Amino acid sequence: MSSNIVWHKSSVTKEERRSQNKHQSFILWFTGLSASGKSSIANAFARQLYERGNQAFVLDGDNVRHGLNKDLGFDEAGRKENIRRIGEVSKLFIESGQIVLTAFISPYREDRQVVRALVEDGEFIEVFVKCSIEICEKRDPKGLYKKARKAEIANFTGVSAPYEEPENPEIILDTEHHTIEECVKQLTSILTSKGYI
Fold it and tell me: Which one of 90, 106, 189, 193 is the catalytic residue?
């Protein structure tokens, strides 16, 4: 890092932005296997937040790899850098007073912890989108599991690369036994009861 870089303080504080928006700003970090329902829940919940007048934005794994992270691969080093960058972008959303919903497999506990450590206590909410590999593979909307089983995709989480389930997530959404709508309702109830929204 250059020694000539100086941090400039914002003229509008995070607290002022939160006050104007009338809600907290935080990260909802959706983690889980491919096809577990992360993006579906994140987008459904974002729509609900929008209709309530909340400021929220979804960062989706595939979408981010079309732009910001298009230079990264899917080996362990590429995955770690992918999550590090998303963590830094998410921190900026928090500073801007918004709710950021991130839908990333983010297979390594250590990487998720790195993002948690970037922000203040209570600003990182880990949401484990729980669904067995068998059900995810049956869903396989993008045909990725099929390709991974044929060794056409290397380092595929759950098949040829590991997924480390969260040990103590703030929220667990079981998409194997509950619909997207039911999960959104559960998420709304939890966050409302805790005063986040």
Answer: 106
DSSP state of 10: P
Residue pLDDT, tens place only, 21-52: 999 999 999 999 999 999 999 999 999 999 99
Please report how the helices 180-193 and 38-52 are oriented relative to each other, as an axis angle in degrees rounded to 10. 50
For residues 82 and 101, give the distance between their C-alpha atoms in angstroms, rounded to a whole number. Answer: 16
Half-sphere exposure of 182 (CA within 13 A, CB side): 9
Torsion (CA) 67, 169, 92, 110 in degrees, nearest 10: -70
| Global pTM value | 0.91
Number of H helices, E strands in the chain: 8, 5
Q: How far apart are CA 60 and CA 72, in angstroms?
A: 15
Residue 15 is which amino acid? E
Whether 106 is catalytic: yes
Distance, CA of 55 to CA of 138 (rounded, Å): 35
3-state DSSP call for residue 124? strand
